[in-house]
Amino acid sequence: MIIGIAGGTGSGKTTLVAKIAEKMSQEVLVISQDSYYKDNAHLSYEERCTINFDHPNALDFELLFQHLNALKKGQNIEQPVYSFIEHTRMKETLTISPKKVILLEGILVLANSNVRSLMDAKIFVDADSDERLIRRLKRDVAERGRTVTEVLDRYQNTMKPMHEAFIEPSKSYADLIIPHNQHNPTAVLLFEKIITQLID
């Protein structure tokens, strides 16, 4: 069973998924869209820095589709490991084994029709745009080695336009829209109940 969880950058979807995975670790496997950015090792670092990572073309949806199909069939996969500092895949992979429920999370997971066709349920986590920017700024500076200027420039030039072009429209495919902030225990409880019902 595959549940897709989308939402804009900094909407809180990753936090929501992490809390569910922590509470239901035996039944739940988390697959992040971020692991499936295309391999850009053939490009120079300077060229990799210019890639629009918020556009669907930056993602290897074909490989993601293949891996999700394999997991549905009970097969292990070799998941790519992506470096946000180097802007490309690493040489090593992670061996991932299937579980009862796969939580597929990422900003664009509802934007691809092939990947979407594998989902048993589709969820969109919604949040205020200013709040999302603040969260993205804090995360990218602390975890991804970005400067404040880099994050703000990217937000204005790519993240915001791509959100409006691809992410926000994908909300129309959602079976459930969750208004979220970092302290939304009701959303966690609701999500947990949904998964439990689907498993049963």
Task: Tell me the layout of helices and strands.
Blueprint: E1 2-6, H1 13-23, E2 28-32, H2 45-48, H3 61-72, E3 77-83, E4 88-96, E5 101-105, H4 113-117, E6 121-126, H5 129-143, H6 148-170, E7 176-179, H7 185-199
Parallel strand pairs: 1-5, 1-6, 2-5, 6-7
Antiparallel strand pairs: 3-4
Task: Give short descriptive properties of this protein.
5-stranded parallel β-sheet, alpha/beta, Rossmann fold, 200 residues, globular, two-stranded antiparallel ribbon, single chain
Structural notes for this entry:
The chain is of the alpha/beta class and 200 residues long. It contains 7 helices and 7 strands. The protein has one domain: P-loop containing nucleotide triphosphate hydrolases (Rossmann fold, 3-Layer(aba) Sandwich). The protein has a 5-stranded parallel beta sheet, covered by helices on one side. Strands 3-4 form a two-stranded antiparallel sheet. The termini are close together. 32% of the residues are buried.
- Specify the CATH class: Alpha Beta
Mean pLDDT: 87
* Overall geometry: globular
Rounded radius of gyration (Å): 16 Å
- Total domains: 1
Helix/strand structural class: alpha/beta
Number of helical elements: 7
What is the subunit arrangement here? single chain
Main pleated sheet: 5 strands, parallel
Order of helices and strands: EHEHHEEEHEHHEH
Distance between the termini: 12 Å
CATH architect. name: 3-Layer(aba) Sandwich
Strand order of the largest sheet: 2-5-1-6-7
Question: Which regions contain 5 or more consecutive residues with pLDDT less than 50?
Answer: none
**Helicity range:** 40-55%
Report the sheet-strand fraction: 15-25%
Number of strands: 7
Q: Give the CATH H-level superfamily.
A: P-loop containing nucleotide triphosphate hydrolases
- Named CATH topology: Rossmann fold
